[in-house]
Write a structure and sequence with these properties.
Length: about 425
């Protein structure tokens, strides 16, 4: 689909972003391993999370919904899972594939899992290697690095593992495997990646120990069935927060948005760039803080980001690059080589597409340098990457002239209501 975006006169109003993608995946998977019936509300009804539900159904889990964000999962513990009859399809979702590998590592049966073209290019050795150390058998292209992957699990032994990169998906896959192993599994992170898994495991009665960057999970614990209300996705809200900051006539209020500090690095950076943003935490749901964010037209200046901040805003770098492209002065993003193995190689695709709109970008092996200026409309391509498509739409709102985004349907991967929310705020 070609999406045409024209500069908008204003951006104003209030909205609630859709349910958090990371938390929705986790809620479905943990519910599928629980002993009994769990109920999820605020579940993100987007392609990625539907991929997780479909894979779980193929593994024999009974699931009702999603209907208006409600999902009911009837499960019988990890031993309730069954060998699937066909290949599991994870679509575009790295979270689905990596988490399920962690689950399947302890299952005595044989499973094949694959995904779309983007997912089949993404590195899986980062989960396959430690899971093999725990005793799972995993095969795939490039020695088990690329999907389609097949896996046959069994009795797992616990390991102590130092994650080579800060990755919440790898951390979570190992915690899920460790939960099913005999003994104590230890995972050490190089920097804190999002901690939704740890929070949700605690919420459903699983004991784990967290000492700084070292997490210990005690094996063979049962997950109690749970009820959970998923807060709004900060990463979805991020597109409109940036849009409000860079637009000259903007004032928006975002309700019920997740404020987990391992996710909100963008707020730190925008505030550092001079953004007019207010955040009010209102409560906690299933161990996850949520609240309201107000953002207004601001004059942003360039900044430098790197180090431990990167995992806290890795998914927001596409839209942050748009902010940097129109800020005053230069912005340097370092320590973000992980961008290359996201839904697209985001260092390359961001540079290629934003340059078409007149942005000045130099790419680095682990990031980029952007020189702020004015953007002009152009015909750009999403590369099938949902966050790139939405970031380009935000750029189009402040560019001179018309922007056409080719392949914009990929927005449905994480935010099917993006255009409706955009329409309401620009009315
Ligand atoms: C996610 C973790 C992040 C993030 C992805 C979702 C998760 O990836 O980029 O969109 O739900 O755990 P990493 O595994 O690289 O941290």
């Amino acid at each position: 689909m070609d999406l045409v975006i024209r500069p908008t006169l204003h951006l104003r109003g209030e909205f609630s972003p859709p349910g958090d993608k990371s938390i929705s995946h986790r809620a479905a998977i943990f519910a599928a391993l629980a002993d009994g019936t769990s109920e999820i509300s605020g579940f993100l009804e987007a392609e990625d999370c539907l991929s997780t539900l479909n894979c779980l159904k193929a593994l024999g889990v009974e699931i009702e919904g999603p209907r208006e964000g409600k999902v009911k999962v009837y499960a019988h513990g990890p031993e309730g899972l069954k060998e699937p009859e066909d290949v599991l399809y994870a679509g575009n979702s790295g979270t689905t594939m990596r988490f399920l590998l962690g689950v399947l590592a302890a299952q005595p049966f044989y499973t094949v899992i694959t995904g779309d073209r983007s997912l089949r290019r993404r590195p899986m050795a980062r989960v396959a290697d430690p899971l093999r150390q725990m005793g799972a058998q995993i095969w795939g292209r490039e020695g088990g690095n690329l999907a389609p992957l097949s896996i046959k699990g069994g009795n797992l032994r616990p390991i102590e593992y130092n994650l080579p990169v800060a990755s919440a998906q790898v951390k979570s896959a190992l915690l899920l495997a460790g939960l099913q192993a005999e003994g104590e599994t230890v995972v050490r992170e190089p920097a804190p990646a999002r901690d939704h898994t740890e929070r949700m495991l605690k919420y459903c009665g699983v004991k784990l120990k967290k000492e700084d960057l070292r997490i210990t999970i005690y094996g063979r614990q049962r997950i109690e069935p749970f009820k959970i209300s998923v807060p709004g996705d900060f990463s979805a809200a991020a597109f409109f927060l940036v849009a409000a900051c860079i637009h000259p006539r903007a004032e928006i209020v975002v309700h019920n948005v997740g404020l987990n500090p391992t996710r909100t690095g963008l707020l730190t950076v925008l505030q550092d760039m001079g953004a007019d943003i207010e955040v009010v935490q209102q409560g906690e749901s299933a161990g996850e803080p949520y609240g309201v964010i107000k953002a207004r037209s601001s004059s942003l200046k360039g900044t430098k980001i790197g180090g431990a901040l990167i995992p806290r805003l890795i998914d927001e770098i596409p839209v942050l690059a748009v902010a940097a492209a129109v800020a005053q002065g230069s912005t340097v993003i370092r320590d973000a080589a992980e961008l290359k193995v996201k839904e697209s190689d985001r260092i390359t695709t961001l540079a290629v597409e934003l340059r078409k709109m007149g942005a000045k970008i130099e790419t680095l092996p682990d990031g980029m340098i952007l020189e702020g200026g004015n953007l002009k409309g152009a015909v750009v391509d999403s590369h099938g990457d949902h966050r790139l498509a939405m970031a380009l739409a935000v750029a189009g709102l402040v560019a001179e002239g018309e922007t056409v985004i080719r392949g914009a349907e990929c927005m449905n991967v994480s935010y099917p209501g993006f255009l409706a929310d955009l329409g309401a705020l620009t009315k």
